Amino acid sequence: MATTSKAKTTKVHPLADRVAIRPLEETEQMRGGLYIPDTAKEKPQQGEIIAAGPGRIEKGAHVPMELKVGDKVLYGKYSGTEVTIEDDTFLIIKESDVLAKIG
């Protein structure tokens, strides 16, 4: 069940218990009057789920996803796989690697 937010069609359809996350970028460009280049910034650890898989099979039974499209989440700094599709960057991550929902 891959759905989208912001009325933008996504080409990402995660499988099993994986979700596609759009990382939330920090808005602060200047810190103490110094410009911080993109290469020196820390990776974001927050994002919005833009697509979710159907869930996983455990002991022969279907376990549905707890996360849904539109949820804001926290995830590990180096979790998942970053992919770029049509100039959009997503993070594909297992549901178990998501640390918490925000809000």
Please name the defining characteristics of this protein:
103 residues; mainly beta; 10 Kd Chaperonin, Protein Cpn10, Chain O; six-stranded antiparallel beta sheet; two-stranded antiparallel ribbon; disordered N terminus
Précis, in short:
The chain is mainly β and 103 residues long.
Give an overview of the whole structure:
It is a single chain. With 103 residues, the chain is an all-beta fold. It has a single domain, classed as 10 Kd Chaperonin, Protein Cpn10, Chain O (Roll), CATH 2.30.33.40. It has no helices and 10 strands. A 6-stranded antiparallel sheet has the order 8-9-1-4-7-10, with no helix packed on it.
Measured as a percent range, the helix fraction is under 10%
**On the 0-100 scale, what is the average pLDDT?**
83
Shape: elongated
The H-level CATH homologous superfamily, spelled out, is GroES chaperonin
Poorly predicted residue ranges:
3-7
Give a quick account of the main beta sheet: strands, pairing sense, barrel closure.
Answer: 6 strands, antiparallel
Rg calculated over all Cα atoms: 15 Å
Summed up, the helix count is: 0
Instruction: Supply the number of structural domains.
Output: 1
- The helix-strand sequence is EEEEEEEEEE
SSE layout and pairing:
Layout: E1 18-23, E2 30-31, E3 34-35, E4 46-52, E5 56-58, E6 61-63, E7 72-75, E8 81-85, E9 88-94, E10 98-102
